[in-house]
What we know:
The chain is an alpha/beta fold. The protein folds into two domains: 6-312, Rossmann fold; 314-534, N-(1-d-carboxylethyl)-l-norvaline Dehydrogenase, domain 2 (Orthogonal Bundle), CATH 1.10.1040.10. It has 24 helices and 17 strands. A six-stranded parallel beta sheet has the order 6-3-2-7-10-11, with helices on both faces. Strand 13 (271-272) and strand 14 (278-279) form a beta hairpin. The longest helix is centred in the middle third of the chain and has 18 residues, at 203-220. The chain is globular and about 65 Å long.
Amino acid sequence: MKLNSCGIKDLEIWRRAGFIIPGFDRGKIIANAKTRPVWVHFGVGNIFRAFPAVLWQRLLDLCLEDTGIIAAEGYDYEIIDAVFRPRDNLGVSVTLKAGGDIEKTLVASIAEALKLEPLHPDVKRLEEVFRAPSLRLASFTITEKGYSLGRGGEFAPATLADFANGPAKSTSYLGKVTALLHERFRAGKLPIAMVSLDNCSHNGDRLFESVRTFAGKWAEKGLVGPGFPKYVENPESVSFPWTMIDKITPRPDRGVKELLAESGLEDLELVTTGKSTYAAPFVNAEETEYLVVEDRFPNGRPALDRAGVIFTDRETVDKVERMKVCTCLNPLHLSLAIFGCPLRIGKISEAMRDPDLKRLVEIVGRDEGLPVVIDPGIIRPRDFLAEVLEVRFPNPFMPDTPQRIACDISQKMGIRFGETIKTYLSRPDLRIDDLVLIPLSIAGWLRYLLGLDDWGESMEISPDPRRDELEQRLRDVKLGDPGPFHDRVAPILSDAGIFAVDLYRAGLGGRIEGYFAELAAGRGAIRKTLRKYTGSA
Length: 537
């Protein structure tokens, strides 16, 4: 069995091998996407192929839609050449259930896979797509850092170059996207929803601010028509809904590859691109999934509610997003990663079998997180948290790792921990002194940045856009140093660009310094400190 157009001509073979097969005419949905595209998605990573692409396949199977998704990649173009095009944009999604069952789905909902690469012929096709009146939405899974135009109040060099050169010569991700939106403006100010599906607070606003900045700078320089910024800012023309997406999608796993090979599937090589993206012809993910979307679609929206998507108002999305990202899932994941890496724990499920780490996330979630949660009404926070702690994280069949969660921590700290800290400061019924394990996790991150495990051996640090700078600040810290460490950690802990708050002004800086000293006291200090503050000894 080969994963390409020729290899799926006889779908009965796939069905007998245990795959869920598409129930639509793939040739028809590809042809329809050529002439009247409906959905274009930017960011062709694992979460896209395991979740949005599968949602769309459900609508195609129900005959509620008849066009395929157009997938576009604006950062790591190698994925298109290595994974998508050799297999005619087909893929396999493997659902790993907590009870041990697996579900294999042949995903055939992607009609095209294009590179948003400067000067590449695919850009002309994407411009054509954005000029199509039928296009309803453009969605994004480009990670939190994909929306950044710079750092510390300064624009990045690529952003400044795009401001000067205009839409035709843009090279940054959001510059290229805004250039495509300009094509839609020129085609008659056609309406569209620009839908971020990334795990960052008020993700629609993040996307909007970046796009609006480009539109304004280009208009100031006369590089676009004066009406373009107004088009971007008019929600009846261009909307930027808030969303909350939740489905744990680890890197492709070799064990899953072997399982698929046993089913008869060939050519399943795992790929690590030159930009350190992990990809494969298949994706593996958990069964649990949530997608909550603000219902603002000026050109009409697909019936994704029939596939399980919850459409609601902005306030409810905000409550659900804060519940998940700020308290009930992502902070727990991050705490497990921060301590799991130096404790040499290979999987999240293994971390949940570690009494110290299990107790850590129970306290971070139930004792320190839940008090700030506002019940969104559509998902009960206590039930959501219980599912995370009792079903999702302990799932032994999920190959998720602390090392994956540890990627880009500097971009995650503010929303994972900073927002909870700010809420404790703003509410008279909460005491900042009641926070213990969230500050300990922040101190644990500083300890992680030393690049040494709990035995004092060298340990690989996951990629982070601020890694070099942060490691440089801590370069002189050695295990067993008595401190004080204030001069070395204060520039980090006071950086509101990382934590969304100055931790000294919040009353936590000195305490975190003390925790850091305990964690860096020598070999075995991480385990000893965890047991001290979780009470699991």
